[in-house]
Amino acid sequence: MALLIQDKAIVVPGEELAEGMDYLPGTDVLREGEKLIATKVGLVNISGRLIKLIPLSGKYIPKKNDIILGKVVGMGFSGWRVDIDWAFEANLALRDASTEFIEKTADLSQYYNFEDWIVCQITAVAAGGRLIDLTMKGSGLRKLGPGRIISVTPSKVPRIIGKQGSMISLIKETTNCKISVGQNGLVWISGEDSHKELIAVRAIEKIEAESHISGLTDRIKAFLEGEHQ
Fold first, then answer.
1. Sign of the Cα pseudo-torsion (53, 151, 187, 78, in order)
2. Contact at 8 Å (CB) between 45 and 52?
3. pLDDT over 80 at 57, yes or no
4. Is 24 a member of any domain?
5. Is the C-alpha dihedral spanning 191, 215, 163, 159 positive or negative?
6. CATH of the domain at 16
7. pTM value?
8. Contact criterion met (CB below 8 Å) for 212 and 159
9. Of 64, 116, 133, 200, whose CB count within 10 A is highest?
10. Per-residue pLDDT tens over the stretch 2-22
């Protein structure tokens, strides 16, 4: 009856996490007899008796209600096709594209054109992720303007945003950049100048690389202060 690892430890597939029946397997942890075994490279999270892993890498898997970033890659009579960094394109129907009524004969490019980036929400996922529906009706859902898009590990998004948005607010305020973070690991950054945008990019990349190390907020503050001296 023993815990073999500490909370926030990094483990690899096959590593033993606990012995005995006192602990329960959570996400990406399996039981083999009386042992709990890691199935992925990840950060250990211990909550009471439950042991789970937070993956340190891996592709985004679409889920209903996720707020994500996507790029318009197709248009048809019924709406738009959107690349959300997943194996299959998502569908944005006319009825979900705007709070105003869109005529079927309307010029759809007036709303969203090819290569436009949008902040959208997933309303349905079916057929094993092959059919995904999106909406633009909701707070903060919008078409994005000029800026740069970077990609981060989706599992790191909560650390990049921070508790109640604290981490991303720190970066926004220090760099004076507009930033939108999607749960699919895509981030839009738009600043007054390219140098400030680059500082924001480097700060986000630092969070992604060091999210498993304690004292992250203080290190990001020090990094941002150093860049602005």
1. negative
2. yes
3. no
4. yes
5. positive
6. 2.40.50.100
7. 0.77
8. no
9. 200
10. 889 988 888 888 999 999 999
Residue 61 in any domain: the answer is no
Q: What sign does the CA torsion over 31, 33, 38, 40 have? A: negative
Query: If you search the block for the tokens 């993956």, which residue do you land on?
Result: 55
DSSP β-ladder status, 117-126 and 131-135: antiparallel
Dihedral over alpha carbons 82, 84, 89, 92 (to 10 degrees): -40
Pair 134, 95: CB distance under 8 Å:
no
What value does the mean pLDDT of the chain take?
92
Query: Letter for the amino acid at 101?
Result: F
Q: Within this chain, do residues 132 and 73 fall inside the same structural domain, yes or no?
A: yes
d(CA 96, CA 178): 25
Reported confidence tier of residue 227, pLDDT bands at 50, 70, 90: confident
CA dist 143 → 36, 68, 88, 113, 165 (Å): 45, 12, 21, 10, 21
